Amino acid sequence: MKLLLFLLFSIVLNAEILQYELLPKHYNSKEFMHIKILDAKYLKLYDARGKFISELSGLAYCSDGLYAVSDNGYLYNFSIEIKNNTIKKLKLKKSFALRDEDGVILHGSLKDAEGLSSYYDRLLISFERKERVAIYSKNGIALKKIKLNKHLRDEENYQGKNKGLESVAYNRKYGIITAPEEPLKNRKRKYHILYSQKQHWKFKAKGSITSIDFLDDDKAIVLMRHYRFLGDRFTSLIRVHLDRCDKKRVCQSEILAKFESSKGWNIDNFEGLCKVDTNKFLMISDDNDSLFQKTLLVLFEVMN
User: Fold this and answer.
1) What are the pLDDT digits (tens) for 149-170?
2) What CATH number did the domain enclosing 79 receive?
């Protein structure tokens, strides 16, 4: 038993946070389009049991650290130090299996947590399968389900079982906002749509929505990706102006950055996004629990 505990403790100590080169080799500036890449890290993290932490798909930055959710139904709380535009430290403080309102651990399709956002002193979590958004305590217990926009309530409207609510964000002006990964079946595919309980906002973009956060009260930042393990892939950051929409609810938007593997960007399956400071954000990639993918944590700044 002592030997096992020693080995587990050693694994935790050997957690690695490695510098990572995201930019193409030929690129000699960290500024790209409308953003600046400040830092990028390759994470190899383990929990207190020595189990490898994988499939991180949502981030939330709070006064007590960085929170992350995984597709396999876990909530993690990290202490993080960002100094001089660099991710200096990242250390796991606590981890929790997600539970329902009765305290029962989520299993099967119920545990597929994807989106995460801070919500006062609590958290919002969205789920891809059994599509829903719920308020959670910071120790992973469901407190209350959020009533979804009427267009999101029928699971038959989604493009597939794996195309549900990848993202969620809270905004004091517009409330809780979420979005399906792909446009609903009864909607034109040329537009993606963000939904609050009673409103919606359309914008043109290619790819799948994986996360949402806010630059300010009226400007949403949408993380999108097209990922194929064998083939070209891209990650896009789209700014959507929720206060500049026409009568058909189509809003002004622009691409802040588009990272393409075909152009030398060393990207992976980016799915999580959170604001950490004025104009500064973190985004994280979901490694799909694969030996051939990486958990990447990227710090960037929106320039204008």
Assistant:
1) 999 999 999 988 888 999 999 9
2) 2.120.10
